[in-house]
Amino acid sequence: MTDTTIKKIDSSHSPKGKLGQKYLATGKSLSMRLWENEQPGEDKQPTKREYETVGYVINGRAELHIEGQMILLEPGTSWVVPKGATHHYNILEPFTAVEATSPPAQVHGRDEN
Questions:
Q1: Are 88 and 10 in contact (CB under 8 A)?
Q2: Model confidence, pTM
Q3: Where does 15-109 sit in CATH, by number?
C-alpha cells in the first residue's frame, strides 16, 4: 500500500495565524510554523502551551525566558520549550525562526490564546 499522507507545502500559500506565525507542513503528531521578521518592541506575556516546541533561528536575535532562566537565541542556535513550561520571548532585533510542535500547535487553536 502506498502512503498517501506525503505532502509538499509551498509556503507562499500557507495561512497565517493571529500571532503572525505562518503554518507550514502538518502531520498527525507534529507541525511546523515559521515566524518571519518578528519585530522588537512588543512585550510578550508569559504563557504555557499544551505542546512541546523545538525551534531553530534563521536570522536575528531574541531572548527566551523560560522557568526562571534566560537563553539567548541567535542564528544557528536551536531550543526546546517543554509542554507546560512558563515562557516568553523578548525579540531583540528582526527575528526569523522555524519551529516544530508536538502535538500540532494549530489543532483546536492551541497557539492562538
A1: no
A2: 0.85
A3: 2.60.120.10
